[in-house]
Amino acid sequence: MSAEDAVSTEAANVVAAPARKSGTGRRVPEWFWRGAALRAAKLEFSEGQAEHGALEARARKCLELARRGLAPGGVPGAAGYNAVTCDLLRQAVHWALAALSANRPRPEPELQQALALGSPDSTLASAVPKGLHADIASALSRRDFQDCSDREYSRFGVALAAVADNLLATLERPRQKLWLVRFQRGMRVGTLAMIAAALAILALNVLDQIEQRADLARDKAWIASSIGAVGCQSPLQVCEESPGFFFHTQQERNPWFELDLGAITQISAVRADNRKDCCAERASPLVVEVSLDHRTWKEVARREGQFRSWKASFPTQKARWVKLRIPSQSPTTFHLAGVRVLP
Predict the structure, then answer these.
(1) For the chain, where are the E strands, in sequence order?
(2) Which distant-in-sequence residues (6+ apart) come within 8 Å of 115 by Cβ?
(3) Which site among 57, 65, 173, 281 is 20 to 30 Å from 87 CA-CA?
(4) What is the CA angle 196-270-294, rounded to 5?
(5) Between the CA of residue 3 and those of 102, 129, 130, 174, 289, what are the distances in Å?
(6) How far apart are CA 205 and CA 185, in angstroms?
């Protein structure tokens, strides 16, 4: 397994590891929120970053400059490496290894010796791909690359670049862990939020269906104080001719809408759905009144301020007629998209 594969596998294992908390009630929130895993990843990242950040930056810059010495097309292994390119690649290995050693400091002479002699340092050895040990040992043991042949330039360049890449991938591991935990939390919390939203929408739809079935105003005759625009014909409250509202009065004082339930009925709530396309402010203030004899009216609810859908609940009343009225001494128009009366 290459160093990059090892890094990816280890990162995935860390992210997937369950939180060590007792009780299912505490493990489930951790599985979604990943708080403990995120704190651990942040700690690992911050501890290493402070020490090896500058050294890692040097390594990456050396590797970037060295890649410009590749032959056209930038294909590793192609002829075109020169002494400067190989030396830059060796510097990239040097600074990457120094960065990885930052959390376990050792004297610079020992690090230089490890590089110069190609010692079997565990960090360095794990970064050398199979089949390239001899080339790395030869490249690290050279004082310079001035007398190398084109073939040696190519061999040394490929080996050094591979080792530098693997060391930098190891340095990337804490950052990768942190990103993976954050991504995992975002996905899980986002999924939970979508499920909750879907359940809420489903619940609202179910409640709306229940309310529709209980609606006492369905198929009941209604009239408005005047006709100011084309709407639905009583008893309809939904029609193609007027999708935004089902009745629309002229501009007048105290415009009203009246519903005949057909018989004295016990009611405890009225729902008013405002006009859908515009002008919601016109339906405010709104008064709900009930009557037994169509002469004496009793106010049971009042709404101040704009609304999209208003459910006015009140103590159970006996009524045959229900009126919605805008108490305004200034001329105004009145329109709604739907009215329900509930037992």
Answers:
(1) 222-224, 247-248, 256-274, 286-291, 298-303, 309-325, 335-342
(2) 90, 93, 94, 97, 124, 140
(3) 173
(4) 175
(5) 19, 8, 11, 14, 78
(6) 30
In sequence order, the β-bridge partners of residue 340 are: 271
191-247 pLDDT per residue, tens: 888 999 999 999 999 998 999 999 999 999 999 999 998 899 999 999 988 999 999
Find how far residue 123's CA is from the centre of its chain: 38
Q: What is the pLDDT of residue 107?
A: 40
Beta bridge partners of 309: 273
Task: Tell me the domains of the chain and their CATH numbers.
Answer: 3-179 (no CATH), 222-342 (2.60.120.260)
Nearest to 302, CA basis, from 215, 310, 294: 310
Query: In degrees rounded to 5, what are phi and psi of residue 149?
Result: -80, 170
Euclidean distance between the first and final Cα of the chain, in Å?
72
3 state SS of 163: helix
Residue reference for tokens 């004899």: 293
pLDDT band for position 108 (cuts 50, 70, 90): very low
